[in-house]
């Protein structure tokens, strides 16, 4: 089946800038990219995860800015989720002609994770990833849940993330971000057989 973007005429690119007392962030996302991540917010492990997400979603993401890291990385990581979600919502537009649903199982050595999502414009987030409250490098792993929730809520995504098993925290989080990336990449795919939005309601 030939998949094309005939349904989507405009460039699926969006830029969002958001300044608060806690963070000053700017993102640029291209949903029809090559999977290139560029930029930094001073949280190396988190940037490594964003790099995996974009590479496996085949979207391009530029991220600039900083946050109140002197406190911790919470505001910065959560707010990146907010601005990325807002940019994705803009880039998706009326969501016509896309697959809408995406799912992916991703193994990472001893770990196995899954993400199932719906670009339905009605946010819901379920995170069944029971891992200890610990750090990978300097990164508090509990912030992954904050990031993905902020992303899903601001992009209008129903997202279910599940970890079946795993022991190495780095492997587990790689599997999670790759699964979210692959599922997202599938859901944003254009399909020329889909007239309008993939919904009997005619609107998402
Ligand atoms: Mn790694």
Instruction: Kindly state the number of beta strands.
Output: 10
Count up the helices: 4
CATH H-level superfamily title: Imidazole glycerol phosphate dehydratase, domain 1
Structural class: alpha+beta
Mean pLDDT: 95
Instruction: Kindly provide the radius of gyration, computed on alpha-carbon positions and rounded to a whole number of angstroms.
Output: 16 Å
How are the strands of the biggest sheet laid out side by side?
1-2-4-3
Tell me the distance between the termini: 25 Å
Q: Hey, roughly how much beta strand do the residues contain?
A: 25-35%
Under CATH at level 1, the class stands as: Alpha Beta
Ligand identities: manganese (II) ion
The secondary-structure element order is EEEHEHEEEEEHEH
- What is CATH's topology name? Ribosomal Protein S5, domain 2
Q: Helical amount among residues, as a percent range?
A: 25-40%
Largest sheet: 4 strands, mixed
Q: Residue ranges: pLDDT <50 for 5 or more in a row? A: 1-7
Q: Provide the domain count.
A: 1
Shape: globular
CATH architecture: 2-Layer Sandwich
Essential attributes:
204 residues, Ribosomal Protein S5, domain 2, four-stranded mixed sheet, 4 helices, disordered N terminus
Strand and helix layout:
Blueprint (H helix, E strand, L loop, with lengths): L12 E7 L3 E8 L6 E3 L4 H14 L2 E8 L6 H19 L8 E8 L2 E8 L5 E5 L6 E2 L2 E2 L2 H13 L2 E8 L3 H19 L17
Parallel strand pairs: 3-4, 7-10
Antiparallel strand pairs: 1-2, 2-4, 5-6, 6-10, 8-9
Helix pairs in contact: 1-4, 2-3
The structure holds manganese (II) ion.
Manganese (II) ion binds next to α4.
């Amino acid at each position: 089946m030939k998949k094309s973007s005939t349904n989507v005429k405009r460039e699926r690119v969006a830029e969002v800038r958001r300044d608060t007392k806690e963070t000053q962030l700017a993102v640029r996302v291209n949903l029809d990219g090559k999977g290139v991540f560029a930029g930094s917010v001073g949280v190396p492990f988190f940037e490594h995860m964003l790099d995996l997400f974009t590479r496996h979603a085949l979207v391009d993401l530029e991220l600039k800015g900083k946050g109140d890291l002197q406190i911790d990385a919470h505001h910065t990581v959560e707010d990146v989720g907010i601005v990325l979600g807002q940019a994705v919502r803009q880039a998706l537009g009326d969501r016509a002609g896309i697959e809408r649903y995406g799912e992916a199982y991703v193994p990472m050595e001893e770990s196995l994770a899954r993400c199932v999502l719906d670009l339905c414009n009605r946010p819901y987030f379920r995170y069944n990833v029971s891992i200890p409250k610990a750090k990978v490098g300097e990164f508090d792993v509990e912030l992954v849940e904050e990031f993905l929730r902020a992303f899903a809520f601001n992009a209008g995504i129903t997202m279910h993330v599940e970890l079946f098993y795993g022991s190495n925290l780095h492997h587990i989080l790689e599997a999670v971000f790759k699964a979210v990336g692959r599922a997202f990449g599938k859901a944003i795919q254009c399909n020329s057989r889909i007239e309008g939005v993939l919904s009997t309601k005619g609107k998402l």
